[in-house]
Design brief:
44% of the residues lie in helices and 0% in strands. It has seven helices and no strands. The radius of gyration is 16 Å and the shape is globular. The mean pLDDT is 82.
């Protein structure tokens, strides 16, 4: 999202409601204004608007609070290569703000070694 928007994730020089890029992403996607996040100073980003929005949707899929809803790396590669689209049923709450969301994040089993199929699958 930093590359697409041309800004840092945390930018204290901005207004309070747009300091955090991911919080701003939540607001823009809920209001149907994803285009507003595309870097206005990048001619390439502006010219490739549809591809940029596709990458933003992939980023949102990867930002799911519930790690079980995030894509596998093999799925990310497929989306980047083109034969697959990002998941459409995305929870657009990317920042844990309440106990329920913190509970989802706390239930992640990061101490167990991941299965090879979770790291990557066949293309």
């Amino acid at each position: 999202m930093e590359m697409v928007s041309g800004r840092k994730n945390l930018d204290t020089s901005r207004s309070e409601e747009s300091i955090h890029l991911i919080t701003l992403l939540e607001e823009k996607v809920k209001n149907g204004q994803l285009v507003d996040l595309i870097d206005k100073n990048s001619i390439d980003m502006q010219a490739q608007e549809q591809d940029v929005i596709r990458m933003m949707k992939l980023a949102m899929w990867c930002l799911q609070i519930d790690c079980k809803r995030r894509p596998k790396m093999s799925e990310v590669v497929k989306v980047l290569e083109g034969p697959m689209d990002a998941e459409r049923n995305i929870d657009h709450n990317f920042v844990a703000k309440n106990q329920v969301n913190f509970g989802i994040a706390a239930n992640a089993t990061s101490s167990a070694a991941p299965l090879a199929s979770h790291l990557s699958g066949p293309r």
